[in-house]
Design a protein that fits this description.
Length: 275
């Protein structure tokens, strides 16, 4: 149901006068979409009680592993996913979950092997294609990333990450009209998340549509005031309009939220003394 549009030549320099504010999107990752498991101590305790009652249930380890992952307890998550796989070597969900933990821990080789295994076990598992595609995207393997996001979309995924990430690839190659379509789809699937709005806003800005870009960045902030990227993007519009004092305040807010966010740091340096 999706039109195929290859990335031909990725002209990464095509984007930006908009500086380095491209949407990273990493925060929209999830542990194989296991929504029932949260990372609270209470939930982990409840899941541990389930495992004590049914120690040979691979699903119980898989769900607790996801909870550990959400809590940032990655080594414990790995142990649970290892156990889930030992109990059920054909669990494609456990392989995909473990792959994401390997990604978070910086072991990209093991992550790739687990995504490959998940896809081998279930070639229609959209989550694994999306995870592997993001692994490829971050490694600069853009053609392979595009194919994986495209495959997930052709499988009729309802996961907004597939559209958001493919939109980032279109955006990076200067194909902003295609990017706008993908970001719009990501927004329709996850209207409460800021990332689609940030991505779409940057493509609007690249096309000279400052009004719609500003509206998207403000919506992103309204949805979640804790995302540094949204404030830096808003500041970028203020800066382009010559409203340097307002830009300085928004850049400062972005830097406060994420002291390592380079566009915020560079924006503060450019507008210093105006806030």
């Amino acid at each position: 149901m999706t039109r195929h549009r290859g990335l031909a030549a990725l002209a990464l320099a095509a984007l930006l006068p908009l500086a380095a504010c491209q949407s990273a999107g990493d925060a929209v990752d999830s542990l194989a979409q296991i929504d029932t498991a949260q990372g609270s101590a209470e939930n982990i305790g409840s899941l541990t009680a389930v495992i004590e009652r049914t120690p040979n249930d691979p699903d119980a380890y898989n769900v607790r592993g996801a909870a550990y992952g959400r809590a940032g307890r990655y080594r414990e998550a790995l142990k649970d996913f290892d156990q889930a796989i030992a109990l059920d070597p054909n669990s494609h969900q456990a392989y995909a979950n473990r792959a994401l933990i390997h990604r978070y821990m910086g072991d990209q080789g093991k992550a790739l092997a687990d995504y490959n295994r998940a896809i081998q076990l279930n070639p229609r598992y959209d989550t694994a294609y999306i995870g592997r595609g993001e692994l490829y995207r971050q490694a600069g393997r853009t053609d392979e990333a595009f194919r994986d996001f495209e495959q997930a979309i052709q499988l009729d995924t309802t996961d907004p990450r597939a559209y958001h990430r493919r939109g980032l690839l279109y955006q990076a190659s200067g194909q902003h009209q295609f990017a706008l379509e993908d970001f719009a789809m990501a927004i329709s699937l996850a209207p409460g998340a800021p990332y689609g709005y940030n991505g779409r806003g940057l493509s609007y800005l690249a096309l000279g549509d400052e009004e719609n870009a500003f509206s998207d960045f403000n919506t992103a902030i309204r949805l979640d005031e804790s995302v540094a990227e949204s404030w830096a993007n808003q500041a970028l519009v203020f800066e382009r309009r010559g409203e340097i004092d307002r830009a300085a305040r928004s850049y400062a807010r972005a830097l406060q939220l994420d002291p390592e966010y380079v566009p915020a740091r560079e924006g503060v340096a450019r507008t210093r003394g105006s806030a």
